[in-house]
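Could someone model cobalt (II) ion with this protein?
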Amino acid sequence: MPVATVELKSAKEIAGMREAGAIVAAVLRVLSQAVQAGVATAELDRIAAAETKARGAKPAFLGYRGYPATLCVSINEEVVHGIPKTDRRLAAGDIVSLDFGVVFNGLFADGAVTVGAGPVGTKAQALMDATREALVRGIDEMRPDRRVGDVSAAIQRYVESKGFSVVRSFVGHGIGRALHEDPAVPNFGKAGTGLRLAPGMVLALEPMVNAGGFDVRVLDDGWTAVTRDGKWSAHFEHTVAVTQGEPEILTVER
Ligand code: MF3
Ligand code: CO
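Reply:
Sure, complex below.
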């Protein structure tokens, strides 16, 4: 197997990715605030497109391998890559994963959050909380001389300790001059294995966590991934740089 060729980003590129990341974070905040019962997922996509344009950025997903929208909106048992639709409206108590990326001055940033349409059930809340915390645990491993397997294992260990499962068939990824770069960053794996991390690496970590089993299937639309057992799923993602010291989350508002 060829060894992944990982692009190390310069300080200048990371500065550019901070700007792209701030746009992603701001748009995800606006979208999160728009999530409520009765809203059509196509309306969220319209907001995402308008907010992207207003900030001088371009959508990263639109046209990517033929993806038809700016935003991915995945509800309840939908895991990732839900296509916004005019006839799909949120219901009270739904959990809604919003996945969004931009390119700004040639540099990409990618992020995701899962939010409730109003208050959600106890189990759904626990699923969202565990997924958000699993992302934090993974990010904390992104230090020089730790390895991709340490990140993967930290995410998996935390998720499984809460009785949930990590999706196997979609993974996190390097990011920078392209939306998806090497290395792949699975949300499961063995500590002490895989590529060694170094300052200048930028990774999009994105745990997808299922309340039931980890198996997923893709709907006939060719995109929407759903859990095989119909149980609910959550997704959080940040674009994060490895530095000499603490990991730096780039998808934050500034
Ligand atoms: N965050 C997802 C990813 O990194 C979003 C991609 S959706 C697509 O794969 F539409 F661009 F494919
Ligand atoms: Co991603």
